[in-house]
Design goal:
The chain is of the alpha+beta class. The protein has two domains: about 90 residues, OB fold (Dihydrolipoamide Acetyltransferase, E2P) (Beta Barrel); about 200 residues, Multidrug efflux transporter AcrB transmembrane fold (Up-down Bundle). Helix content is about 65%, strand content about 15%. The protein contains eleven helices and six strands. Strands 1, 2, 3, 4, 5 and 6 form a six-stranded antiparallel sheet that branches. Helix 4 packs antiparallel against helix 5 and helix 5 runs antiparallel to helix 11. It is globular and about 80 Å long.
Length: about 375
Amino acid sequence: MFKLPQKSDLILVGSLLLICLGLILAPNGFDKTTDTNSVRVKAIVLSTNNNLMVETGILKTGTQLLQIKIQNGQFKGKELQAFNQLVGRMEFDKIFVKGDKTLTVLNLNKDQSNIISANVVDHYRINIELWLLVLFVILLIGFAGWTGIKALLSFMFAGLAIWKLLLPGFLKGFSPIPLSLGIVALLTSAIIFLVAGTNKKGTVAFLGAMCGIAVTCVMAIIFGDLFNIHGAIKPFSETLLYSGFAHLNLTEIFLAGIFISSSGAVMDISMDIAASQAEVINHNPSISAKKLRQSGFEVGKAVVGTMTTTLLLAYSGGFSALLMVFIAQGTPMTNILNLNYVSGELLHTLVGSFGLILVAPFTAIIGSWIFTRVKSRS
């Protein structure tokens, strides 16, 4: 039977929906940096010409000529020749065949009435991405109902906050660590109270999560300095410096990324423990604070064990190719562990795991006090 949402839930959902709408409409300060005499369109490849491509082993350089037909926009239906520039790097290069759908940039004249040239950027994937998103939404709402709708709203809010607040703030020169901590606190409060409700369970989960995130932040700062790692180890970081953002503190951005990336798992654990303690107190209102705290510890032990491994697998999965290179070349373990990008990932994994471990006792202790304080006072 469908249960009508509480009034407080509706108010919170409505408020967050308005905030999301405001973030969508708000400029991020970098909207006008693109060339006004260029447009991006969807096109389909009619034919290809690979005569100007040069193959050197598995790498390809030069230019692939494409005959394309524009599928949308002002020039829909127009056929023209486009260029696909190859730089000899497999992570950037794309080879197109007849029938492929492409994202193409059209360079226009001053009055934007004619096309000067066309450059193919990449395969056009938006349609597939939208179908994947729709499937995700259907499964989430179909399984979780009203809670799924709230989770979807929190998902959207998190994405908008990162895209519209956090990243533009970095680019504008705000101190990365305080800014990140503030954004994470905002996201944590919105997500937890939206899902758990504005009640004791939500309060316990929020306070426990923030304690875990704060510990992760402090440890990231301390051990980031001891590890002597520069933030430029992250992909495309150096490119930012050459793009007019030499003022960026890449190291602080890297350290901020440590507690940002672990904050989701920290929220999961704090919510699990808070929810379990709420169920215990509902079924046994006379339970003592000590026993409720111990109950939270037991749940925390089980959750932390699997979540820590999950964090390790998530990070190592992204670096599987690098690890395979080390194994194939027989690189000594001492060399591997001292390389800056490997040390950076170790710092990322271990410091993030500290937050996961400590959030469990923090939440259990906070929950044992908040859930039983009314009974203790009476």
